[in-house]
Every structure is written in C-alpha cells, then in structure tokens.
C-alpha cells in the first residue's frame, strides 16, 4: 500500500468539488427569497417554493408524463433487450456482429441524430406525436443498457446449465423461468434502473418526438426562460436528483452483489 | 434401491420400474446407432457409427479429444441431432425428440449445478418440472442424496461444496428422475487421483445396484478398462474397436488402438514373423516381454531379441525400458521393479513368448 501524494489528493478533491458543488448550489437556491436572479449569498431563506411547486398543476403533469414514459420505455426495453441478448449472447450466425453493433449504436449516436431521424420517420409514416412516440424514442437507448447488462450476464452463464435443465425434463419456457431468469435477474434489474434513469431526464430525443407535450426536463428548460419564480426549477431539480440517483445507487449495489454470486457459482 | 422411487407423473419422460430392464426385455438394446453421422461444417465429428448397448451394461466410449465420443453422447441425450442414420433408445426412435422428451439423463463434465438453487432444490429440479408435489420431491431428493452419501447437505449451495461433492450432487440429480440410460461425460476428469479412484468403484457399485445402463465418455484408458463392461474405442469420428476391456487391451484391432490403449509395441509383418509370430501387423504388450539374465538360455518357444537400451523411465512398480536391436526393431519393455538394473546403452537379451504377439484384425 502506498499513500497518495498530497498534490494527487488535492486534485482528486478538486475534481469532486467541481462535480458536486454546483449540486449544493441547486439545493441552496431552493430556499432563497430572491426569485429573479441567483444572487450570492441569498438575501433570505424561505420554504414557500415547495408550496408553490405543490400547487402547480403543470409541474405535476410533467412529472406524471415523465414517470409514465420512463416506466413504459423501461418495460419495452426489458422485453426487447432481453430477447436480443438471448439471441445474440451465444448463437453464431451470419450477420451477428453487425446486428449487435446496430443495437448498441443508438447510445453512441448523438441524441440529436436519433431525434431528427425519429422525427422524420414519424413524419414520413404520418404518425402523430403522442405518448408512444416519446416512449419509442426513449426505448432506442433504453434497450441498449438492458441488452448490455443481459448479454454480459448471459455470456457468463454456463451453457451446460441450460442443457442440464432440458436434460432433466424442462421445456424451453420452464428453463427460461427457472434457470435463465434467476441467473440474469439482477442484471435485468440493474439495466432496467439505468434505463429508467436515462429516460427520466432525457431532453434531446424528447424534444424531437414529444410534439406539444412536456416531460419534466422539457418543462424545466422552458421554465428557465421565464424571469419569475426561478427557485421553482431548483425545487424540481432536487426532486429529479432524488428520483434518478436512488435507482442508480441501487443498481450499482445490485450488480456488485450479482457478480459475487456469479463468481462463486462455478 | 428404494431411494429413487415413485417420482415422475408427467408422461414426457416415462419412468420404468428400475429393475424391469434387465430381465424382461433383453432383446431390445438400450441404445442403438445405425450409420449415425454428425457433421459440423466440413468436420465429420461422428462419421457413420453403428453401436448397440445392452440394457444394464456399463459402456465406455474411449478416445482422444475430437474423436467423436462426446458428440455421440450428446446425440443420445438429444443436444445434437444426427445428419444421417438412426438412433433408438429402448426401441424408440428418438430423432427429432428434444432432450426433455428422452428417458436419459446426463452427468455433465462441469456438473452444471444450478448456482441459484440449494443442493436439495438442484436434486429436486427434474421432479419440480414434472409437477411432483413439494413434500414428495423433497423426500425423493433426500433419498437420492443419501444414495450418493450426501445425506443432510440439502440446504447447502453448490458453491459451498468440494469438487467430489458437486459430482455426487450431479449424479443424484440425474438419478432421482430414474432415467433408462445414464450418460456420464468425463465425470471424473476434474477430480484428483485419489478421489477419482474412489468415485470409480462407487460409480461401478451404484450401476450394479441400480441395474441401470451407464454410458460413460472418457479419454482415460485406465478408467475405461477398470469400470466398463464393454469399451468402444473412437478415432476420427468412427468406432475402431468395441469389446470387453480384456479383449481391447489384449488384442488391439488397429495400430491406433494398440497405441492409445496401454501403448503396445507395434511390429511389422516381417518383424513379427522373425519372432515366431504370424506374418501380420502385430501388437506386443510391453509387460509380455521378459528381460533375460546375462547368459541365461531363452525358454522354449520364445523369440530372442539382442538389443541395446536407448531409454529408461522409472514408473514406480515398473520401469519402461526402450530398446533397439541391430536391425532397427524398437521395443518398449516393462521391467518389474527388482528385476535387475538396466542402464542406458547396456546390451540386453529379451525373450518374446510366441503367444504374446497378437495379429491385428483391423490391419492388412
């Protein structure tokens, strides 16, 4: 064990501070009495913005829409991502590599490209913007995180486990339910939570696929342009931090535990 | 054996009474292959195999890796389908039947225990998917574990067991659903020597007690010879010889068998004739050759080789001594411990009893 040198420690602390001090300011200005600008230090402290948020129907509508979209996109991604992983994890067939690349591409592609592509596709097919167009837009990248998690776990799963199950009399469905699912369950949970968090705060793809609807991040962007009641956005931002941070933290711990289980199982 | 009884309800893997097989249907082979072939691209993994395994037989498939023995096992289990030929299990045609509709079970090389299930649930798995009630399958799993001497281990996880214990769990899991044929894929390969010898006699005892047909794949000739009723020697996707262990060992049919099973000396026709054998390609087991004391007369009816020692390797009870005579005949001789010293370069006289030369039936 060597101890880190002082400059290295300082640099690490500086990096952490750079990342996290702005979050503290978000929290701080939830309580300011000044509603037009972010003066430092805040001239006074109040809890009234929480009450304001509570009473505004547009905020709750935006939160509701974001939650519904995130749930639907995650559910879609779980089903399609698991199926894709099942098909591509082990089997060898012509075109396997290109297909797996195409699957992962949406997360590497700039959101703006995905957004424009989807918008034009919806336009060409004369599909009106709706809840489902947002869900489809989000599913493009949600599938990737589920697929990546599932495929990594499936590749670690010994193929003889599936053969053993069928050998002992289980058909394909029983084998999936009793052997495959329990062994990739934590990976799916982790992938699903990441997908949920990604969908919940997505702006760019949503801008192109939402039409007149406002998800929570879109609502925040439009709110920033208005001069009044600025701390309201801070209160909502803190809510978003909580809603996205907790699942990501849970996913982190779940996959860690899952690796330990998978490693000791052989 | 009351241990694994009254298990299955679902018809997909019909379970016969365990002892019925030996006495009532001796005419129907447990497993029959007719011209079976399985190709992977250009590789002929199994290339026209015919075999017939009798009910209650302990049948070993022996061969180097890539010889097709494991593919044959997987063809019986249903993990592979033949490209040509015909497979029957107890008279029933099984081509196209998935593994879960075949009355055979497999003990996998890596054991393939379900890591998320306890030992008891692993053993009960086959009963669970057949819809056996929880209490009943727990009882049967307990009995099966007792059969393999793992009583009381039900609540452990596979990860907490030693290699030998996992092997026994895999065995119990396959036996609890009472297969007509038990397939074992190199089941002892991962165990250390002492444990392997212990499991060999235990497997043999279990097979005798249950009267089950065991089909056993191995690349270890010692294992095949000591356990099996009959051995099929595989090479390049074909069976090159099949017979009882003594026959395969004493009378190898081809050069390959002579070399793979116990590494016999192979003599060309002229060399065999010179030593008093038939003018055929012949095998000569190293332990059949006698090292004569200097000046001692050769016994009646033996061929004599005057040779010099080219290599000596110590192997505990015997030394393997490589010799070469003036005409270029190279032989390996197994010299028992205490039969005098043999040094590199030393001139020796060897006696080859006439009956020790075995002409190979599979060679011209």
SSE topology sketch:
The complex is a heterodimer of chains A (266) and B (364).
Chain A: H1 6-28, H2 48-55, H3 57-88, H4 96-108, H5 111-124, H6 131-156, H7 159-167, H8 172-200, H9 204-209, H10 216-225, H11 231-264
Helix pairs in contact in A: 2-11, 3-6, 3-8, 3-10, 4-6, 6-8, 7-8, 8-11
Chain B: H1 20-24, E1 31-40, E2 43-53, E3 58-62, H2 69-77, E4 84-89, E5 92-93, E6 104-107, H3 119-128, H4 134-147, H5 163-175, E7 181-185, H6 193-210, E8 213-218, H7 221-227, E9 230-235, E10 238-243, H8 245-250, H9 255-260, E11 265-267, H10 269-274, E12 282-284, E13 290-292, E14 302-315, E15 318-325, E16 330-336, E17 347-353, E18 358-359
Parallel strand pairs in B: 3-8, 3-9, 6-7, 7-8
Antiparallel strand pairs in B: 1-2, 1-4, 4-5, 9-10, 11-12, 12-18, 13-17, 14-15, 14-17, 15-16
Domain ABC transmembrane type-1 (chain A): 63-251
Subcellular location (chain A): Cell membrane
GO cellular component, one term (chain A): plasma membrane
SSE run of chain A: HHHHHHHHHHH
DSSP helix count of chain A?
Answer: 11
Total beta-strand segments of chain A = 0
Low-confidence stretches of chain B: 1-25
Assign a percent range to the helix content of chain B: 25-40%
Percent range for helical residues of chain A? Answer: over 70%
Q: List low-pLDDT spans of chain A.
A: 258-266
So, CATH architecture of chain A? Orthogonal Bundle
What class would the helix/strand composition of chain B place it in?
Answer: alpha+beta
Question: What class would the helix/strand composition of chain A place it in?
Answer: mainly alpha
């Amino acid at each position: 064990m060597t101890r880190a040198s002082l400059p290295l420690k300082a640099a690490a602390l500086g990096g952490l501070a750079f990342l996290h001090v702005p979050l503290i300011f978000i929290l701080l200005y939830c309580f300011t009495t000044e509603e037009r600008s972010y003066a430092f230090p805040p001239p006074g402290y109040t809890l009234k913005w929480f009450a304001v948020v509570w009473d505004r129907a547009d905020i709750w509508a935006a939160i509701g829409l974001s939650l519904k979209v995130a749930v639907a996109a995650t559910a879609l991604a779980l089903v399609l991502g698991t199926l894709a992983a099942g098909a591509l994890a082990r089997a060898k067939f012509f075109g396997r590599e290109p297909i797996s690349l195409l699957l992962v591409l949406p997360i590497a592609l700039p959101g703006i490209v995905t957004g424009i592509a989807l918008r034009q596709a919806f336009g060409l097919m004369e599909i009106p913007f709706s809840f489902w167009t947002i869900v489809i837009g989000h599913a493009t990248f949600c599938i990737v995180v589920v697929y990546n998690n599932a495929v990594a776990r499936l590749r670690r799963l010994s193929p003889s486990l599936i053969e053993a199950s069928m050998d002992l009399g289980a058909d394909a469905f029983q084998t999936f339910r009793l052997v495959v699912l329990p062994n990739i369950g934590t990976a799916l949970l982790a992938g699903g939570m990441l997908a949920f968090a990604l969908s919940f705060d997505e702006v760019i793809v949503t801008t192109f696929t939402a039409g007149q609807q406002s998800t929570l991040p879109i609502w925040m962007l439009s709110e920033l342009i208005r001069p009044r009641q600025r701390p309201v956005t801070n209160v909502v931002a803190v809510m978003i931090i909580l809603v996205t941070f907790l699942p990501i933290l849970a996913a982190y711990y779940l996959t860690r535990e899952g690796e330990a289980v998978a490693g000791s199982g052989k | 054996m009351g241990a694994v009884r009254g298990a299955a309800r679902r018809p997909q893997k019909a379970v016969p009474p365990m002892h019925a097989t030996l006495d009532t249907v001796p005419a129907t082979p447990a497993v029959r292959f007719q011209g079976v072939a399985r190709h992977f691209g250009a590789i002929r993994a199994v290339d026209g195999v015919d075999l017939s395994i009798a009910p209650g037989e302990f049948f070993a498939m022996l061969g180097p890796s890539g010889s097709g023995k494991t593919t044959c096992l997987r063809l019986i289990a249903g993990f592979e389908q033949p490209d040509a030929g015909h497979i029957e299990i107890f008279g029933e045609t099984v081509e196209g039947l998935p593994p879960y509709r075949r009355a055979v079970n497999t003990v996998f090389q890596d054991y393939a225990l379900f890591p998320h299930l306890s030992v008891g649930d692993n053993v009960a798995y086959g009963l669970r998917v057949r819809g056996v009630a929880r209490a009943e399958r727990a009882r049967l799993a307990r009995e099966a574990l007792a059969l393999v001497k793992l009583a009381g281990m039900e609540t452990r996880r596979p990860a907490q067991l030693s290699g030998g214990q996992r092997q026994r769990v895999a065995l119990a899991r396959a036996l609890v659903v009472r297969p007509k044929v038990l397939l074992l894929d190199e089941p002892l390969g991962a165990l250390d020597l002492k444990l392997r010898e212990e499991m060999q006699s235990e497997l043999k005892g279990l097979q005798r007690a249950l009267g089950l047909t065991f089909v056993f794949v191995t690349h270890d000739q010692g294992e095949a010879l000591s356990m099996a009723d009959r051995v099929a020697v595989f090479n390049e996707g074909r069976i090159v010889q099949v017979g009882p262990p003594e026959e395969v060992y004493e009378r190898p049919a081809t050069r390959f068998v002579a070399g793979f099973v116990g590494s016999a000396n192979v003599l060309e026709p002229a060399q065999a004739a010179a030593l008093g054998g038939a003018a055929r390609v012949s095998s000569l087991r190293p332990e059949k050759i006698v090292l004569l004391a200097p000046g001692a007369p050769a016994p009646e009816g033996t061929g004599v080789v005057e040779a010099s020692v080219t290599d000596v390797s110590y192997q505990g009870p015997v030394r393997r001594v490589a010799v070469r005579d003036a005409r270029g005949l190279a032989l390996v001789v197994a010299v028992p411990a205490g039969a005098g010293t043999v040094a590199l370069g030393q001139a020796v006289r060897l006696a080859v009893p006439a009956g020790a030369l075995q002409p190979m039936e599979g060679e011209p």
